[in-house]
Amino acid sequence: MFTGKILVDGEWVFRKDCKSRSQTLGAVCQDSFSKKVTLVVHGELAGNVKDVDRGLSRKLLAVMQSRRAGRHIHVVDAAGYSDLLFGAPARCRDLKMQGDQVSVMPEVGDGFLGGPFDRLRLRSRGISRLEADVLGRGTPRHEKLLSILIDQIAGRASLEVRAPARRGPQFDLGWIDGQTAYGTWVASPQPPGTGGLSRLEEAVLHVGRLVRGVSSQAQLQPVVVLEDSEDLASGLKEAAKAVGVHVSKIAGLPGRK
After folding, report:
1. Could you read off the pLDDT of 36-49 as tens digits, one per residue?
2. What are 98-105's contacts with CB under 8 Å, separation 24+?
3. Can you give the pTM of this predicted structure?
């Protein structure tokens, strides 16, 4: 179900065209709310909508009532719908009642964090030459450290492990802790003892460039995760601090344990 015109990757698309695109992918679309509805696409994330505004809020009110009755309905904004069209997972949005108005709430990490973390999707993504050189992506050492990181974060019961936003910096995995959105990059560019510190500094600077200019509702904290054998020397820490990046070994990752 759609609630109006949708902005798909910067282009306004009318509801009938959204329906056509969705049906091409196998979805069944309908205009009236019923128990068959499992997904509502809300195209006006910014600001509130009222019942008099083309019935948009009535649909969201029905979603709220359904959720309270124990039947979950996924609500995505325009960015989430764009993600779904491209086969990426989309975040489910929170709704809040304020008087006679329904708000689709902004969330921590918007524009930075994507949908639920998908280990298979992570494994199948393309790797650029720069990522391979600077971060070591695609090497056995990098994959081993990445697996340890995934197990460590997934084991924290208080955290929801998240994928990167499709159009945001492509970190390995992220999470939310309070009002801070974390995104972690595993860096294992070359074996220890062969000039690794300079390459690690290059990795930190690369991550700093990736997150520069990302806007969000909350604080963003990029993290570069290193192998236990690496030395967190002062030069590396200073380079990381200068670009707002936190460097850590897995045991010292920030956030609640």
Report:
1. 889 988 875 434 44
2. 98/48, 100/50, 100/51, 101/48, 101/49, 101/50, 101/57, 102/48, 102/49, 102/57, 102/60, 102/61, 102/64, 103/48, 104/42, 104/44, 104/45, 104/60, 104/75, 104/77
3. 0.74
